[in-house]
């Protein structure tokens, strides 16, 4: 079972966000990682992009079982809700929901 952890960082002087994460196997060994810059947005947007990229990487690596961790209950609640096309983060939430609908156990 792979474990995807992600975090976000913000440079307040420039208001640029980055998101990154690691993917570990069930033994805790590193299986991949990523770092992406987000030119504008918010902490919530960075967290959502981190989850999306983590899911993409895990899927490309053939992961079938996944534990997704986030330190943001707000973001987890957004992901658990039925997608709302009028939500300000509808595009990235739709991408996450499409990734979660793949044939794996999350």
Automatic annotation (TrEMBL):
What's the superkingdom here? Answer: Eukaryota
Q: Which InterPro entries match?
A: RNase_H-like (IPR053151), RNase_H-like_dom_plant (IPR044730), RNaseH-like_sf (IPR012337), RNaseH_domain (IPR002156), RNaseH_sf (IPR036397)
RNase H type-1 domain ranges (all copies):
18-102
Question: GO molecular function: any one?
Answer: nucleic acid binding
Organism expressing this protein natively: Linum trigynum
Annotated protein name in UniProt: RNase H type-1 domain-containing protein
Note the Pfam families from the entry: RVT_3 (PF13456)
């Amino acid at each position: 079972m792979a474990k995807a952890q992600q975090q976000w960082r913000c440079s307040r002087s420039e208001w640029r966000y980055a998101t990154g994460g690691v993917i570990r196997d069930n033994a805790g060994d590193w299986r991949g990682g990523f770092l992406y810059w987000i030119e504008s947005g918010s902490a919530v947007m960075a967290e959502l992009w981190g989850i999306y990229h983590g899911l993409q990487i895990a899927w490309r690596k053939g992961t079938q079982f996944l534990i997704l961790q986030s330190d943001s209950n707000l973001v987890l609640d957004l992901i658990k809700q039925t997608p709302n096309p009028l939500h300000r983060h509808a595009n990235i939430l739709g991408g996450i929901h499409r990734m979660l609908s793949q044939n794996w156990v999350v």
